[in-house]
Amino acid sequence: MLVTGGAGFIGANFVHYTVRHHPEYRIRVLDALTYAGNRASLAPVDDRVAFVPGDICDAALVDSLVADADVVVHFAAESHVDNSLRDPEPFVRTNLIGTFTLLEAVRRHGVRFHHISTDEVFGDLPLDATGKFTEQTAYDPSSPYSATKAGSDLLVRAWVRSYGVAATLSNCANNYGPFQHVEKFIPRQVTNVLTGERPKLYGTGVNVREWTHVDDHNAAVHLILRQGRIGETYLIGSGDERSNREIVELILALMDRPTDGYDHVPDRPGHDLRYANDSTRLRTELGWRPRFDSFRDGLAATIDWYRANEWWWKPQKQATEESYRRLGR
Ligand code: NAD
Ligand code: TDX
Fold first, then answer.
1. Which of 185, 213, 243, when mutated, tests ligand 2's pocket best, judged by the most ligand atoms within 8 Å of its CB?
2. Closest to 171 in 3D by CA, of 77, 82, 256, 89
């Protein structure tokens, strides 16, 4: 199995999950170790994984690795919306050219491909409605990040239809859990509290996200690899929707701080209002159920992980906060 982006948040958790639950796979990770990749995230499974430092846009390298694989699971991406607003170029390169490079290689070598994507490709939902995204929802991305993820999804679908590539796609809602970069919402607020900073809420904090534990996401990916229909898209989501404000207050409560101890900062431009996935297909066809059915417990365990693993996140914290300060957020 070739895992791209296996030193990032979800990819590293996927490698851990695979070693734990699917020991039959021999795993090779291809990762460029950008600011978001961390070799240390794979340290506990180092004896089970071959690590190749490299870029998914490097066609010769990708070709040689794909030629040697039975299946490619593609996590590598530029993944942070705020970064894409500041500088979209690496997003176009990695998310579009990188996915294209992988697709050409799996086409040449007849290798099974699974593409990891996001619900952000659909744009957003109104705050005052209960409707959800489905596999039929039209693509309507808002940010450079989601536009390049949408483009990568469309490339995969075209390579299935035109070239018969054996690919599946999944679009998951927001993930949380260990090994997530401190630029992202939950780790930023938790590590702010741990370093004596106040949490930072964009705008009024009414925006809603659906939170899925990273292990539940990765369990779904394994189900799709085993039983998913080729060419099909599966939406993944726990069903647990929360406003950002509710989450900041819950983090503060779980960390024994006053629940009003946070700052409002200027809003993200084009900020998507609400995401929510209808994951009926995944649940009925493949029998997926989230194991982490209490967000509060999953969040408390995640807070404990950041408390216990300062060595992992501390080196990234200062530079991340400096770049937020430059954005006024
Ligand atoms: P991340 O930013 O934590 O990790 C991305 C990894 O990809 C890093 O290890 C990085 O070094 C690597 N990478 C970046 N550019 C590369 C390149 N050109 N060549 C090789 N490696 C490269 O991202 P994440 O949060 O783990 O997201 C993984 C995937 O899941 C992405 O495709 C993202 O769109 C998708 N996704 C994320 C979420 C979420 O909540 N984080 C939700 C749904 C979908
Ligand atoms: O400091 C903050 N304060 C704040 O209020 C940060 C960093 C974020 N926010 C808000 C913005 C969003 O409404 O919190 C919400 C979550 O923000 P992010 O962690 O940046 O995630 P989001 O933009 O929702 O995108 C995430 O989920 C979908 C991932 O980063 C994507 O890779 C994934 O595709």
1. 185
2. 77
Ligand 2 contact, 113 CB (< 6 A): no
User: What CATH number does domain 2-180+211-239+275-292 carry, 3.30.2280.10, 2.170.120.30, 3.90.950.20, 3.40.50.720?
Assistant: 3.40.50.720
| Ligand that comes closest to the CA of residue 97 | 1
Beta strands in 6-95 (DSSP E): 27-31, 49-53, 71-74
Distance between CA atoms of residues 22 and 5, nearest Å: 19
Which pair of structure tokens corresponds to residue 24?
């039959």
Q: Report how far ligand 2's centroid is from the alpha carbon of 126 (Å).
A: 17
Q: Is the CB of 252 under 6 A from ligand 1?
A: no
Residue segments in the chain with a per-residue pLDDT below the cut of 70: none
Distance CA 190, CA 304 (A): 10
Check pocket membership of 33 for ligand 1, CB cut-off 6 A.
Answer: yes
Q: What is the pTM of this model?
A: 0.99
pLDDT > 70 fraction of the chain, expressed in percent and rounded = 100
